Amino acid sequence: MVCVLVGVALVTGGLLAVVNNVTKDPKAAKAEQTLAEGIKSVMGTDKITVSSTDSVNNNENGKDRLYIIHNVSDADSKPIGAAVETIGQGFGGDLKVLVGFSMDGKILGYTILQHAETPGLGAKAGEWFQKGQKGDIIGKELKSGDLKVTKDEKGVNSVDAITASTITSRAFLNAVNDAYKTYAGKWKDGESGATKQCKHN
Question: What is the pLDDT of residue 5?
Answer without folding.
Answer: 74
